[in-house]
């Protein structure tokens, strides 16, 4: 059966979202996977904006339930951290024991971005915690984002890919996405080897 | 058995995090619930910051796995959206079919905050989507945050509580948290009624 990958990320908010989703779908195919992209389905109109939003929430959760894996685009979105919708979806897939991978298109890590957010005005408290002028502590864990996100992926053996995209391709550069696909393909080959099957039997492009 | 509630929120970053967690724990007790708070356990030192972060990720996931419900503090954190760690945790608990509730301590909804982020410089494209100067579309769904978060809670029958906290109590005001506790208690009473049991048998404070 072909592995189905849910493509989580803030590119759904782009004017050319469908084009980016099509490119992600094509890349998934190249590695023998199927893509399940939020925004692929047309959501019927609803009586209120709230009802419409709830309908999208249901469709996206259904898509995740039917997927075997997620690749989460954790590139910072409207601020220093990942898109919260993507963070929700990554947590949702981690809880289901699905295969997980993540990428970011900026090279500054979570700590460096938080430091920049505070303009470098950091102090260290008596307990050794680094804090901003607002008293909030900074995570300094050599991670691309909050430890639940980065840790959730890395602890499950998933790839965490960092790639520097051009400013005008922050959400469209798919280098990191493709690296995640390669890592997933490799992970599946290893798993099948562990199960005593020949890796070539598992070439995803030939198995359905 | 006493319902165990995982208390997700950015208050873990406060200098007085333990004090806030103790107050949340006391409120949970008042409604007959047990609190499971991230940061409650001491994590042993690790060789690297990365390893320490991964250890916290594991402990927090274990705590969620052992909890029956989550109350997520979705108050905006270092920007216009909720804390991404909290978003991950909310998704994690939604996927497990746990009871969910959320609150925010600001009254501006997600759309209003995004509008402010763009300084009101919004245009409407040919497809009817509102977009910022960077071309990214704005969600306008009458929701407190990204539709996956708000929708994930509301679609499960969970409370979404909005309360205006004072500026200096943005992460410590527990009015919304207590409203979520009341809603959870009510939800449990209804569920038990649906199951044909007398609600008074289910008074959480008497059932273990």
UniProtKB/TrEMBL annotation, chains A, B:
Biased composition (Basic and acidic residues): 189-201
UniProt xrefs under InterPro entries: 2'-dNMP_N-hydrolase, Nucleoside_deoxyribTrfase
Membrane-spanning segments: none
SUPFAM superfamilies referenced in this protein's UniProt entry, alphabetically: N-(deoxy)ribosyltransferase-like
A Pfam match: Nuc_deoxyrib_tr
Superkingdom in the source lineage: Bacteria
GO biological process per UniProt: deoxyribonucleoside monophosphate catabolic process
One GO MF term: 5-hydroxymethyl-dUMP N-hydrolase activity
Official protein name in the record: Nucleoside 2-deoxyribosyltransferase
């Amino acid at each position: 059966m072909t592995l189905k990958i849910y493509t989580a990320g803030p590119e759904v908010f782009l004017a050319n979202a469908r084009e980016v989703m099509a490119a992600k779908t094509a890349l998934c195919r190249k590695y023998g996977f199927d893509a399940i992209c939020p925004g692929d389905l047309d959501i019927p109109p609803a009586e209120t904006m709230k009802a419409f939003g709830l309908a999208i929430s249901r469709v996206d959760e259904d898509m995740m339930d039917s997927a075997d894996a997620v690749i989460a685009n954790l590139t910072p979105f409207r601020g220093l951290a990942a898109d919260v919708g993507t963070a929700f979806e990554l947590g949702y897939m981690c809880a289901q024991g699905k295969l997980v991978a993540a990428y970011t298109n900026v090279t500054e890590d979570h700590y460096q971005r938080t430091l920049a957010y505070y303009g470098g005005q950091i102090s260290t408290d008596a307990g050794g915690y680094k804090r901003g002028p607002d008293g909030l502590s900074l995570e300094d864990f050599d991670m691309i984002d909050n430890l639940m996100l980065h840790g959730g992926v890395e602890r499950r053996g998933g790839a965490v890919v960092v790639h520097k995209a051009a400013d005008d391709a922050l959400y469209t550069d798919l280098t990191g996405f493709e690296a995640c696909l390669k890592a997933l393909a490799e992970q599946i080959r290893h798993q099948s080897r562990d199960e005593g099957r020949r890796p070539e039997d598992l070439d995803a492009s030939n198995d359905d």
